[in-house]
């Protein structure tokens, strides 16, 4: 199956902990993204990578750091999580730039208690 | 920066009805407008797109209209079915930063059987 795969599906953690989310795409795409979807379903771009290079880095707190080992993988690490980090984190990919269809993963739901 | 507004925020219709979802954007440099659908518990799924050099695109029960002068789009869904119940997102990306797609707040569509 070719798609965007995210792990874990869910994660519950305490304030101040570090978490790491994994994303892999088997579509052969060059560009990958992380989006944050809040409880009201609002979607905001966080990071975009093209061929392992960071292209877009939105106004995201410094505790968030993306990590790309190759163009098929884009992980997201959050150091010292805070309650407002509770959300669904969506990984996505596209063939080249965002001016083509973007394929999304199922998301990782983070709950910070 | 680019802002995308979507109306209405929610719609409840009877099966078989047609619906219209409106979307407006602010940045005249936007060139690509994909729409996505998110069913409960499922991943965001691309449904239709249009580029700024087009006025209309149709696929099956979806018709997407684009007015560059007024910076307005409208998505028309005909013969709705309960399976169309989902959140529909309008989005826009600008040519100068093709790796950043800005999403509207979504329209929650409920189709009653």
How would you sum up this structure, described in words?
The complex is a heterodimer of chains A (113) and B (113). Chain A is mostly beta strands and 113 residues long. In chain A, 0% of the residues lie in helices and 57% in strands. Chain A contains no helices and eleven strands. Chain A has strands at 4-7, 10-13, 19-25, 31-37, 43-50, 53-57, 64-70, 73-78, 87-94, 102-104, 108-112. In chain A, strands 2, 4, 5, 6, 9, 10 and 11 form a seven-stranded mixed sheet that branches. Chain A has a four-stranded antiparallel sheet with strand order 1-3-8-7, with no helix packed on it. In chain A, strand 9 (87-94) and strand 10 (102-104) form a beta hairpin. Chain A starts with a strand and ends with a strand. The mean pLDDT of chain A is 93. By secondary structure, chain B is mainly β. Chain B contains no helices and eleven strands. In chain B, the strands form two sheets. In chain B, strands 2, 4, 5, 9, 10 and 11 form a six-stranded mixed sheet that branches. The model of chain B has no long low-confidence stretch (mean pLDDT 94). The A-B interface holds A 4, 31, 33, 40-45, 48, 50, 55-56, 58, 90, 92, 97-99, 101-107 and B 31-32, 34, 36, 38, 42-46, 49, 51, 87, 89, 93, 95, 97-103, 105-106.
